[in-house]
Amino acid sequence: MRSFHLIVLSCTLALLAACSPKYNWREAHGDRIQFTVLLPAKPASFSRQIDLNGIPVAMTMTAAEIDDVTFAVGAAELADAAQAPQGLASMRTALINNIGGTVRATPIPGKTEGAQVLDVVATGVARGRPMVLMARLIAKDKRIYQVLIVGEEKAVTPENIETFFTSFKPV
Alpha carbon 48 to chain centroid distance? Predict the structure, then answer.
């Protein structure tokens, strides 16, 4: 019986060690363009006009940062769904350029059904530090989304990648 209690205690301690109190996952929602996603802290949102290679859009970003790792969802609506491929390609290029990145072939977990999806994983340097960028760019009808994690590679864990990307659902 004593060995059973030791096993239970060991398992409990292992589970507690795996939980990081820094990551307080909570459901966040898009305001203007609807989506749901789990973010590791209380999110902040802001909107700004951006140019996607000749396509002006108002993009709203909802993001949270933990240990210098940013988890963010950008959402915008295009004038015409036919602009989606150009919009996604422009977002991809801008994100890679932001870190002076080199693209890697690494899969991102989770999928978004009924949408055009472009996954990007790149490494580079931003703010003088080596960074990894993982982004899923999605077009669904006239709506486009960028779901991304960017931070120092050693701080981006497989568990957090899985939680974040598999939780994203456009509405």
Answer: 19
β-bridge pairing 44-51 and 102-104: unpaired
Amino acid at 85: P
Nearest to 96 by CA among 68, 66, 73, 118: 118
Alpha-carbon span 122 to 135, nearest angstrom: 9
pLDDT tens digits, 116-136: 899 999 999 888 889 999 999
The dotted CATH code for 25-170 is 3.40.1000.10
DSSP state of 162: H
Three-class DSSP labels, 84-100: HHHHHHHHHHHHHHHCC
Please name which of 117, 109, 127, 113 lies closest in space to residue 84, comparing C-alpha atoms: 117
Global pTM reads: 0.83
Please enumerate in sequence order all residues whose Cβ is within 8 A of that of 87, keeping only pairs 6 or more positions apart, or say none.
Answer: 52, 53, 55, 57, 76, 78, 139, 144
